[in-house]
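[Q] Does anyone have a clean structure-token version of this?
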Amino acid sequence: MKQIANLLIVISCLSIIAVPLGCGGSSSSGRSGGGGGGTGSGTGTGTGTGTGTGNTSGANNEYTFLWTVSGDATQSQLDGLKSRMQRLSDMLYQCGDGQQYIKSITIRDNATNGDIRTPVASISSTSLGGGSYGKTVMSGGVWHIELPGDPHPGLFAHEHGHFEWQLGEEYTASQGCPCVMANLSVGAQMQYCDSSNHNGAAFSQSPCWDTIRSKTNMEHTDGSYSGATSGPTCEVTVENSGQ
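[A] Here you go.
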């Protein structure tokens, strides 16, 4: 992988429509395995970068993440960020046919070492600014996600697809898959594509569900989606450095 100044490899999400989901750049923006968001190993070859094991026994992938804010946030701002965590977890649950969700997440300000990172200037925004909505970034050999504090749930699931499963981009300016790895302007759907709907003529990579099944114990019957939308309660801890 080509080395870029400061050892940063950035996959930037650019503004395409009012609520963009997709990213510009290489599709190889995930980690080296299907591990969860923790220091324990997941079901792939890689390990996570947070504080717990990402994938547990049984049918569910239960993620534990650290979400950091790079600046001194107010309690009101941190509480606002906390209030959005359940909908992000529910989007993962929906895309994963009810087999993945955020079990627990810690939000910490004045820190820059999270699995997910937000500039304090964007903590209440839907955008990172400068036409960017989200990024999957490697720094010092570790992957992390950069998002505003009020991201579209589909954008969160899109970046999580890069970060967790190494899923590639599935859209161009004119076409895409009916998949969360595409863009709303070209028909993105809040699901992972499978062999029944993957646009193989335009995108040479395997359908998303093929990749996910090869890395995890998650199950999916091609052409059949569960319709699950509301997952277990996401446990959120807020750590305010000013208190």
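[Q] Thanks! Anything notable?
[A] The helical segments are 75-83, 85-95, 153-165, 208-215.
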